[in-house]
Amino acid sequence: MQNSTHALPDNWAARFFTIWTGQAISLLGSAMVQFALVWWLTKETGSATVLATATLVALLPQIVLGPFAGALVDRYNRRIIMIVADSSIALATLGLFYLFATGQVQIWHIYAIMAVRSLGGAFHHPAMTSSTSLMVPDKHLARIAGANQTLQGLLNIFAPPLGALLIELFSTQNVLLIDAGSALFAILPLLFIAIPQPTKRINQTSGEVEVTSYLQDMREGFAYAVKWKGLLGLILLAMLLNFLLIPSSSLLPLVVTNIFNGGAAELGWVEALFGTGIIVGGILLGIWGGFKRRIVTSFIGIIGIGAGITLTGLVPANMFYLLLAANFLVGFMQVFANGPLMAIMQSTVAPEMQGRVFSLLTAGASAMMPLSLLIAGPISDQFGIRFWYIVGGSICILATVAALFIPAIMNIETNQEQTPAAAD
Length: 424
Known about the structure:
Elements: H1 12-45, H2 48-75, H3 78-101, H4 107-135, H5 141-170, H6 172-192, H7 214-227, H8 229-250, H9 252-259, H10 264-288, H11 294-314, H12 320-348, H13 354-383, H14 385-403, H15 407-410
């Protein structure tokens, strides 16, 4: 089923990838700025509390305001929303550049810019994701998701060392200036390439476009997700998996140092193998596209992630190479878990609802991060670092296997006609 109400032009690929390439360049700049800001906080304060607060500040806007942003994305022109979001982030970054250049920067300024960048992302991400389904044929959505995963893998590997190099060569404020410049690559294509908008719903009695309030749109978004049992099940599963798996990356430095007696080099190798797994998986998914039933591909990926996390907790201390293999497996399988899942959402959720649904999914999954970290830390201190990996990875596998026997979830690609908006 093609989830677009617009006929796609023959040159859809050129139009989409022009925008996509600009976004990729902007993401590289953003990743370098994120590294630069965290490094500056580390160097200036050396405080774990400051770093934890910065992480929380970067999360809160998307957790708290994400659902509200989604309703606005569905109400207004998504292209304009992306332009405003990218421009606001760039202007805020230029403001921080000025504070660095004049020696006035303070820690709270860093917190403020992180909050602004997160708020911009809360609008930009659902706008771009929901626009993709209107610009790309349904049969290619999983491949596009694979390309996105490959991009994330490349950013994970190259952005930190590139950011570190640029900081040494040009200083922190000039890295900020580079990011503001990279934002132009995201904004300029949007000024000249139109993005299709979802068709407005027509009142079947009057034959006119339905006019709803913002609060009605928000309530409708929640109702849409709750009444569609398969969609609700996937959102809840994603939240559970995030709760189980997020601490694994935060606790990884302790695994390397305390269990394998490694240092920065060993940790770098582990993270490099994880990023390599994402790149290899992304290329494979981009070429192959996954199984015809995307939910099967996604669940195989999730089970593979659980296996990799569990293996991380079971690897003997004298077999570091198995730790590398486990993290390659997690990165590789992450692509097949996330890519098809995103394609399912893009192809089955009604176009006029996608902003709200993607925002709800992002907010719910992000909300699990601080909660799981608060719980995982004390549990790992009490029972050992390996405990969270073994239990979390095992529950991940069991929860996914259980979902295989839930028809509403397994048939999500064909049961969208049961949702409230399907009759519109």
